[in-house]
Batch of 2 targets.
Target 1
Amino acid sequence: MSDWTDAVSTEEPRDLGSKKSLRPGAQCHYPSPSAFDRIARTVCRVGRIPRKELYESWEIVKRVRRHLRGTRIIDLACGHGLVAYALAVIMPSVPEIIAVDRRLPPSAALLRDAMEAEWPSLAERVRLQQGDVRSVPVLENDIVVCAHGCGSLTDRALDLALDAGADVAVLPCCSDHSRLDDGGLRGWLGGDLAIDVVRAVRLRDAGYKVWTQHIPAEITPKNRLLMGRFQRVEA
Ligand SMILES: C[S@@+](CC[C@H](N)C(=O)[O-])C[C@H]1O[C@@H](n2cnc3c(N)ncnc32)[C@H](O)[C@@H]1O
């Protein structure tokens, strides 16, 4: 029986956007057997990952699970890899998850070890890989995820997904207003939003069903989540 649920612990702490690392002593805030609480306790045991990252990752993964389909997940610019590992937990039917970053931080290996200790089957399904975002060829049945891909990195993730016709979810980060396409909309929308609107329209024009959502601003101010599912025309 799956232990997956949208709910987070009823005893969750305030200040969900805190950049302080969750420490082992905070495990008591996450007492239930739910997937979220088990992931939270595992993150606490690692002792290196900010609380913000736990809540942000959870908001992303539960929406990816709801809307996107795919037989493989690629977490581009994965950092510590929590998005990839949480997706592996709540999408148990996905056999392969690859988390790639050009410079994996030390917390990535610590999180991998802790997650594999809690869910041994993850060792077979999740691969952490050091390399450029282009080092993993994207296939049409993939789900490409990129959280806080700085500047044009978000657009590289979109390029890779679009080229393959793969599903995609990005949570854009800082935008370089001098280089990124704002569609001439910045006068009305401001630079960051204009750039994200152009990204969404780009997906729609390429045949994607598009979802534009916010994750709670108390977790992160960079909270626009853009998701697209490629609409295949059946022969
Ligand atoms: C702001 S962090 C986001 C990390 C993680 N996705 C998260 O949400 O916590 C950006 C990450 O992008 C990685 N990165 C930057 N350029 C990259 C590239 N060309 N290929 C792979 N990773 C890259 C950095 O090493 C860094 O870990």
Target 2
Amino acid sequence: MTTVITPLGVKLGVVGKGGVGKTTIAGLLARAYAGRGSRVVAIDTDSNPNLGLSLGLSLEETEAVPVLPRSVIVGSGGGGPSARELIGEYGRATPAGPTLLSAIRVAEAGAGCTCSGHATVRNLLADALTDVEVTLVDMEAGLEHLSRSGGTLAYADVLLVVCEPTRKSILTASRTAALAAELGIAHVFAVGNKARSAADVAYFDEALAQEGIPLAGVLAYDEAVVDDDREGSVGLRPVTDDVERVVAEVLAVVEAAVGSGGNR
Ligand SMILES: Nc1ncnc2c1ncn2[C@@H]1O[C@H](COP(=O)(O)OP(=O)(O)O)[C@@H](O)[C@H]1O
Ligand SMILES: [Mg+2]
């Protein structure tokens, strides 16, 4: 296993088109960091929150995770709670190790926009998070929360854009990278997912090179992921050697990018 020494306070956002595998990959990365002894906070910003399942919680436990209060000003400046206090109050331990925070839940039709939940996450990431090694945000699909005004991930160090071998997901990656540049996020990498052939891997290489987005790793289409999903055992079983190797590659790329300092 590659040893990864993560700089204190690195903040990762996992983004991409709907259904590409953001939650699956966020779960794998969070598990891997926790497995290496890092204190990890994983934040679910999907209004249909599933990250808990990928970290080994049952559906009931996932749904029982308290939702962060909306529009919280975090940190001493505004007199609000610190990130540490919020994590202590709203975070839930998971079998996989990371502490899970749930930022958004739409419990009823017509409940309104989710912007105020995103504002809390933005403010949380802006706080120092000094006793957390890795904060990882599983983002809701869509680009609106990466806009310059109020972007949820404005304080992220690294964005990982998950892609399928489809033109549309590459297009989403390209738009995401452009918004990330506007937000001042220094490091954007793609993670290929659901590759079924060497041609899929070649497609990721070529299409992402054309967009100027470096590829951090490619995860194969894996029947075990599908089985785990159906059996409700996502996040509980050990990952295969192949998955472990790809995840290690991605973590090494992240480390190389932020090794000289996360925690802006
Ligand atoms: N590498 C993979 N191989 C097979 N199925 C996958 C893989 N990654 C994700 N999936 C499946 O694709 C679906 C969407 O994945 P998910 O992680 O929920 O995507 P997102 O969070 O981007 O919406 C899920 O049913 C998941 O089990
Ligand atoms: Mg998801």
